[in-house]
Amino acid sequence: MKQIIVVLSLLSLLATACTDKKSTEEPSSEVIDTIPTLVTQVQLCSRLYTTEYQIHKIITHDDKMKVSGSFMKHEFSVNLPLGDRRIAIPMNATLKAYIDMSDFSEKNIQKQGKRLAVTLPDPKIILTSTKIDHKEVKQYVALTRHNFTDAELTSYEAQGRKQIIASIPQMGIIERAQESAARQLVPIFTAMGYNEADITISFRKKFTIKDLGQVVEVNKKD
Q1: What does the domain layout of the chain look like in residue ranges?
Q2: Is 162 within 8 Å of 59 (Cβ atoms)?
Q3: How far apart are CA 150 and CA 156, in angstroms?
Q4: Which residue did the predictor score with more confidence, 199 or 142?
Q5: Which secondary structure element, helix H or strand E, spans residue 51, and what is its range?
Q6: Whose CA, among 7, 100, 109, 110, lies 20 to 30 Å from 197?
């Protein structure tokens, strides 16, 4: 089964819920010194959406009718003439990245003089939707074969979803989510009196394909 994934667009989402008019003003000359106050300001962001991917995927399936067995102790497998069945299913999917700030606490902040080191919670990726473009489905079914059933189409769509999730590490969506979160949070700290040069925002680890089970969520409504 040959799979093709094309990333159509990458959108950076603005975290308007995290900032108010004060964040657009010049940093105050007085640094707000209490860590609890810093924590409260970050928690106001709640769920910070950072990145969205629109994906177009072609799910393909090709099977043949075969006859197999053994003759004179030799195994054989023969494709039957006019036994081909092929299908190409266009599917659109949406992936969104976010960081949940609800568990952000004083443990995530280290302060040394004017320097501020912030460790953000792990990013999360949601497969929010998938949709098959039924008008553009292409299929060929030999006269000796039956048409693809709804159950088969549903199964192929599920396979496509799994392949999209498995390809997330190659898309760079996790890294872009981290970068976007940092850019959106820096103005909060500068508005509280910190210089941007003194602010370090990081994450606890670099994620790999082994971590997908912890990072990826699938929208149950989909």
Answers
A1: 3-218
A2: no
A3: 10
A4: 199
A5: strand 47-71
A6: 100
The enclosing H or E element of 199 equals strand 199-203
Quick one: tokens of 72? 């004179």
**Of 57, 64, 55, which is closest to residue 2 (Cα–Cα)?**
57
Give the burial string for 85-122 (b: 16+ CB within 10 Å, else e).
bebbbbbebbbbbbbebeebeeebbebeeeebebebbb
Summarize pLDDT for 27-68 with one digit per residue, the tens.
444 555 578 888 888 888 777 888 888 999 999 888 765 555
Beta strands in 72-163 (DSSP E): 74-100, 109-112, 115-120, 124-132, 138-141
pTM of the shown model: 0.65
CA separation, residue 191 to residues 26, 30, 51 (Å)? 7, 10, 24
3-state SS string for 140-180 = EECCCCCCCCHHHHHHHHHHHHHHHHHCHHHHCHHHHHHHH
Residues in the chain: 222
Mean pLDDT along residues 74-88: 69
Eight-state DSSP code of residue 191: H
The pair of three-digit structure tokens given for residue 152, joined into one six-digit string: 């088969």
**Gap between the terminal Cα atoms of the chain:** 24
Residues 6+ apart with CB under 8 A from 150: none
> Which stretch of 47-51, 95-99, 147-151 has the lowest confidence by average pLDDT?
47-51
